[in-house]
Amino acid sequence: MNAPLTDSLVLSAREGAVLRLTMNRAGARNALSEAMMRALEAAFVEAAHEPTVRVIILGANGPAFCAGHDLKEMTACRAADDKGRARFAALFDQCSRLMQTIVRHPKPVIAQVQGIATAAGCQLVASCDLAVAASEARFATPGVNIGLFCSTPMVALSRNVSRKHAMEMLLTGEMIGASDALRIGLVNRVVSGAELESETLKLAQLIASKPKTTVKIGKDAFYRQLEMPLSDAYDYASRVMTENMLEAEAEEGIGAFVEKRDPKWPS
After folding, report:
1. Residue 5 above 50 pLDDT?
2. Phi and psi (nearest 5°) for 260?
3. Could you tell me the maximum CA-CA distance found in the chain, to the nearest angstrom?
4. According to the 3-state scheme, what is the secondary structure of the chain?
5. pLDDT of res. 47
6. Residues 125, 108: Cα–Cα separation, whole Å
7. pLDDT band at 3 (very low <50, low <70, confident <90, very high)
8. How do residues 118-176 score in pLDDT, each as one tens digit?
9. β-strand 138-140 against 130-134: which pairing, if any?
């Protein structure tokens, strides 16, 4: 059963070691208002400190996954003396913190995308570690069509797909279907709408079955080495593997492999 977080903007439900966070602003296509971003960030921070949570699924209620920033809320900011500059800066800073909270989160996050994911909604998908999409899902960074280039979504998008694919999405603003999103690497899997929830959960449960400290070490190292020159990345990864070898999980896992038995992971 879903439980509310922060005035029901985000719903929370547990399925064993998997936590489902569901954006619950269907009437506004789950637009990332200031309140929605605060609620999501709070939910992710809380999950980081919950030891029994191994994997997080981020989904949404309604026909849209997320339509990006709340443009009505942003337009209202223009009434201020500075024409909204301070509020705009605060909103984009809040969005950047949310996306980095997901990337730096100690637990893997899987986006479950049932409908459109546009602008900052596409950024949200790209910021998650993995993404499973329904065949009818669609993706776009359409800011160029309304005179607001998707500069912050560009950060996440360009770290997921090749430069030319990212630039095409950013410069044309055109929607792409789920099959194209799979082809360019924006999502991992495409399934039927009827299978979306079960297939996403199956993937989450598979990852949740892996040793949790190893997964945490690996996720953190993955993103850190991406930003390094090749030689620095290898030096860093070698240090990580050395420390990982000293963990109880590595001792048990390697010992089980050598002894031809199933590992018994520390809790």
Report:
1. no
2. 55, 50
3. 71
4. CCEEECCCCEEEEEECCEEEEEECCHHHCCCECHHHHHHHHHHHHHHHCCCCCCEEEEEECCCCCECCECHHHHHHHHHCCCCCHHHHHHHHHHHHHHHHHHHCCCCCEEEEECCEEECHHHHHHHHCCEEEEECCCEEECHHHHHCCCCHHHHHHHCCCCCHHHHHHHHHHCCCEEHHHHHHHCCCCEEECHHHHHHHHHHHHHHHHCCCHHHHHHHHHHHHHHHCCCHHHHHHHHHHHHHHHHCCHHHHHHHHHHHCCCCCCCCC
5. 97
6. 13
7. low
8. 999 999 999 999 999 999 999 999 999 999 999 999 999 999 999 999 999 999 999 99
9. unpaired
Predicted pLDDT at 267: 73
Cα separation, 61 vs 10, in Å, equals 10
Share the mean pLDDT of the chain. 95
pLDDT tens-place string over residues 81-111? 999 999 999 999 999 999 999 999 999 999 9
Q: Is the sign of the CA dihedral 27, 28, 29, 30 positive or negative?
A: negative
At 43, list the tokens.
């939910």
Q: Shortest CA distance to 115 belongs to which of 132, 133, 127? A: 133
Question: Is the separation of the CB atoms in 163 and 218 below 8 Å?
Answer: no
Report which residue type is found at 122.
C
